[in-house]
Specification:
The chain is an alpha/beta fold and 411 residues long. The chain has two domains: 130 residues, Rossmann fold, CATH 3.40.50.2300; 268 residues, EAL domain (TIM Barrel), CATH 3.20.20. 42% of the residues lie in helices and 21% in strands. It is built from 14 helices and 15 strands. The strands form two sheets. The protein has an eight-stranded mixed barrel. A five-stranded parallel β-sheet has the order 2-1-3-4-5, sandwiched between helices. Helix 10 links the parallel strand 10 and strand 11. The two termini are 24 Å apart. It binds magnesium ion. Magnesium ion binds next to loops.
Length: 411
C-alpha cells in the first residue's frame, strides 16, 4: 500500500476512543498526516472555530454519537464556514448514510466521501488521494467586496480592462480561441478580480452595462488581432442575469456590427450559478443567438446548475468541463471517469469539448488521451492583455514542440 506524499491536516471525531485509535493508526500507515482526535464533537467544533476555517483539510465524523450526532455536527460546521472537506464514517445502513451525505451536499459542505466501518485501508487511501487541501491564507487574494456606487464609477471611468486566456487545440497546439476575463484596474487597490465585483453587478442591476462594456472591448480586440493576421475567436462570459431581457441578441448583433466582426467569431460562455428565473426567456434568447451563428458554450460544466438538463434543453456548441474534474485527473480515478464521460457525451452531442484548469503536462496528456479537443489553463498561458497575444503565440509554438516530445516520453 503506497503512502500519500502530501501531508494533510485531519480532525477525526468519534465517541468511541477505540475507533479513533484505529483511524489514527490507519492514517499513519498512509503517510505523515497531522491528526487531531476528539470524542466530543463540541470540543472539535471549538477547535475548528479557534484554529480558523482553513486550518484543517479534512474532518472525519462519525454519524452515530450521543449528544450532538453527525447531522447536528454538519449543521454547526456550515455555520462555522468550514472550508475543508468532510468524510462521514459510519456503521449505519447505506440509505441512512446516503441521506446524511445528501444533506451535507445540500448544505454546500465539501463532502469528500463516505467510509463504512470497519474502515478498509484501501478505501481510506482512495479518500486521501482525492482530497483537495485547503489553500493557505497567504495564497488567497484579499477579499474585499465593493459597493455598487464604486463599481458604477469604475464602469464610467473606464477602469475595467479585459485580459485574454487562449484555448488551444490538443491535436496540434494551435490557439483558436481566447476567453476574455475582466479585471478592475482599481486606482488604489491595484488589480481586482471578477469574483469581487461580478456578484455586486448582478445584485445591483449593473451587469448589463458591465457585460456590454466587456463585449465591446473584446470585439475591438478581436478585430485588431484579425488586422494583425491572427484569427482567434473571442469568448465572453455571460451572466444568467443578462438573459432576462429579450433584446439581448439584438444588442450582441449591434456590437458585432460596430466592430465589423462576423457572428461566428464570438462565443458566449454561459454559467448558471443559480437556478434560471425564467427558462422560457433564456431559451428564446439563446435560440435566437444561435440562429444568428453566435457560438454558445456551457461553462463550468459539471458543477452548480450547469447540468445535463441544460444540455438537453439549450442549444450549446461547446461543452466546457469544470476545472475541478481536470487538474489532477491523471492520478484520480473519480475525476478521470467524470472527465471521460463528459468528453464522450460532448462528442456524441456534436459539441466541441474543452477542459479548463489545465496546469501540468500530466493534465495535458490525459486530455489528449481521452480525446478532448481544446485545453485552457496555466499550463498553456495565464490570462494576458490583448496586445501580448501575438508574442505569446510565437513563444507557444516553440514550447509546444517541447511538450510533444515530453509527452511521448510520458507514455
Ligand atoms: Mg468562462
Amino acid at each position: 500500500m503506497s503512502a500519500i506524499d502530501r501531508s494533510l491536516r485531519v480532525i477525526a471525531i468519534d465517541d468511541d476512543p477505540f475507533e479513533l485509535k484505529l483511524i489514527t493508526h490507519q492514517l499513519s500507515r498512509l503517510g505523515q498526516h497531522d491528526v487531531m482526535v476528539f470524542t466530543d464533537p463540541v470540543e472539535a467544533l471549538d477547535c475548528i472555530d479557534e484554529a480558523g476555517v482553513s486550518a484543517f483539510d479534512l474532518v472525519f465524523c462519525d454519524l452515530q454519537m450521543p449528544g450532538i450526532d453527525g447531522i447536528a455536527f454538519q449543521r454547526r460546521l456550515v455555520r462555522s464556514h468550514f472550508e475543508g472537506e468532510l468524510v462521514l464514517f459510519s456503521g449505519e445502513d447505506d440509505r441512512t448514510v446516503q441521506a446524511a451525505a445528501n444533506l451535507a451536499r445540500r448544505q454546500q459542505l465539501r463532502l469528500l466521501g463516505i467510509l463504512k466501518k470497519p474502515i478498509n485501508l484501501e478505501a481510506l487511501r482512495k479518500i486521501l488521494v482525492a482530497a483537495t487541501p485547503v489553500s493557505s491564507d497567504e495564497t488567497k487574494p484579499a477579499r474585499k467586496m465593493y459597493s455598487p456606487e464604486e463599481l458604477r464609477r469604475a464602469i464610467d471611468n473606464d477602469e475595467l480592462i479585459n485580459f485574454y486566456q487562449p484555448k488551444v487545440l490538443l491535436a496540434d497546439g494551435k490557439p483558436i480561441e481566447a476567453e476574455c476575463l475582466v479585471r478592475w484596474q482599481h486606482p488604489t487597490d491595484g488589480m481586482v478580480y471578477p469574483d469581487q465585483f461580478i456578484p455586486v453587478a448582478e445584485q445591483h442591476g449593473l451587469i448589463d452595462d458591465l457585460t456590454h462594456l466587456v463585449l465591446t472591448k473584446a470585439l475591438d480586440q478581436s478585430a485588431q488581432w484579425r488586422k494583425a493576421g491572427l484569427s482567434l475567436r473571442v469568448a465572453v462570459n455571460i451572466s444568467m442575469d443578462n438573459l432576462s431581457t429579450l433584446d439581448f441578441p439584438e444588442k450582441v448583433m449591434a456590437a458585432l456590427e460596430t466592430a465589423a466582426m462576423p457572428a461566428e467569431s464570438l462565443i458566449l460562455e454561459i454559467t448558471e450559478s443559480r437556478l434560471m428565473q425564467d427558462p422560457i426567456a433564456v431559451l428564446d434568447i439563446l435560440t435566437r443567438l444561435r440562429l444568428r451563428r453566435v457560438r454558445l458554450s456551457i461553462d463550468d460544466f459539471g458543477i452548480g446548475h450547469s447540468s445535463l438538463a441544460q444540455l438537453r434543453d439549450l442549444p450549446f456548441d461547446e461543452l466546457k468541463i469544470d476545472r475541478s474534474f481536470v487538474h489532477g485527473a491523471s492520478g484520480n480515478p473519480q475525476k478521470r471517469a467524470i472527465l471521460q464521460a463528459s468528453i464522450d457525451m460532448g462528442r456524441q452531442l456534436g459539441m466541441q469539448t474543452i477542459a479548463e484548469g489545465v496546469e501540468t503536462i500530466e493534465d495535458w496528456k490525459v486530455l489528449k488521451d481521452l480525446g478532448c479537443e481544446l485545453a485552457q489553463g496555466y499550463f498553456c498561458a495565464r490570462p494576458m492583455p490583448g496586445e501580448k497575444m501575438p508574442r505569446w503565440i510565437s513563444d507557444w509554438r516553440q514550447r509546444y514542440q517541447e511538450i510533444e516530445r515530453e509527452s511521448v516520453l510520458l507514455s
